[in-house]
Amino acid sequence: MSIHSRIKQLREANGLSMEALAKRVGVSAWQTVQQWEREEKGTAPKRARLQAVADALGTTPEYLLVGDAGAERADDDAEFVGVHVLNVKASAGAGRLVFEESAVGLMAFRTDFLRSMSIARQDAVMMTVQGMSMEPTLPDGSVVLVDTSQTNPRARGVFVVLVDDELMIKRVRVEKNGDLVLTSDNPDKTTFPDRKFAAAGKKLVQIKGRARWFSACL
Length: 218
Fold this sequence. Notes:
The chain folds into two domains: 3-66, 434 Repressor (Amino-terminal Domain), CATH 1.10.260.40; 80-215, Umud Fragment, subunit A. 22% of the residues lie in helices and 31% in strands. The protein is built from six helices and ten strands, in the order H-H-H-H-H-E-E-E-H-E-E-E-E-E-E-E. Strand 6 and strand 7 form a beta hairpin. Helix 2 packs across helix 3 (30-36). The chain is elongated, with a radius of gyration of 19 Å. It starts with a helix and ends with a strand. One of its GO terms (biological process) is proteolysis.
């Protein structure tokens, strides 16, 4: 059963019309719900809306995404929690065009692990690194845990950033004059040069979150 089928099944089980579910979730048109229930790629609710849909249907985002006959509402006492895996790749290279992001699955993490890193479950997402600009720190194909609540570049570290509709993963630093600099860990600066944004142009850079952990195949 797909996410589309689970939404429809739960809506009908709750005795809700498409209009009623749309009102509960906070969308203006019932056709949006019709789209969610349509078995077509790219029509499922986006990550930002998924929690509201789950709440309206009395379930969890995890159940809507992957299904589980015994799924219960997750809480802070659960031993494991699911972190959304997004269908976007953060480029460790020249940048990757991004048109949408949605959750395509879950990766399980121990609750105490996230707590030890001060990452709230609702702020955690997973995405894949594409390219070699962050090697040797982040190999091509790494899966990165991103804390979307950390968007202050003065914290230093590796961040996922959006620049002119291109998603990339870089080290970010703020210089004394306020300039923002995106740097790669790859020592080949001819291929992977730094990118500097003057203080007045920093609004072109959207910091989406800080990379906190990664996994990669050996």
